[in-house]
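call fold target=DedA family protein
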Amino acid sequence: MELLTWLDPGPDAGLGAVFVASFLAATLLPGGSEIVFAGFVQLHPDQAWPALALAAVGNTLGGMTTYVMARAIPHAATPPRAAWIERHGAPVLLLAWAPVIGDALCAAAGWLRLPPIACAVWMGLGKLARYGLILAGMTL
């Protein structure tokens, strides 16, 4: 705890770090936003709800960045591996938080031209649930 206190830039800068870490972790860049989120909440439990909101929004915007980049790729015939995403549509993005497959799901949704608002909503719900579970696990 002493090391975390020494590194702590304060709640305002820390909330910004939660947002940036969450955004970057959802793009094709590797990152561990969960550690930043949990560390911030541990230092500033009174800021848990704003941190939860910023982590979910940042992570969703990062996923939508991947979606938009993939949407720019010319669309051809749907490969068999992406057919189930096309068949089930935007709700599969509830799993966009998952390591390894999350980025691929966001990219596939963009490439398949699934509706962007529906994708953002489903993606956001899944990412909010993930950070909510982390927060709930910290309070047990």
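return ok
The radius of gyration is 16 Å. The mean pLDDT is 87.
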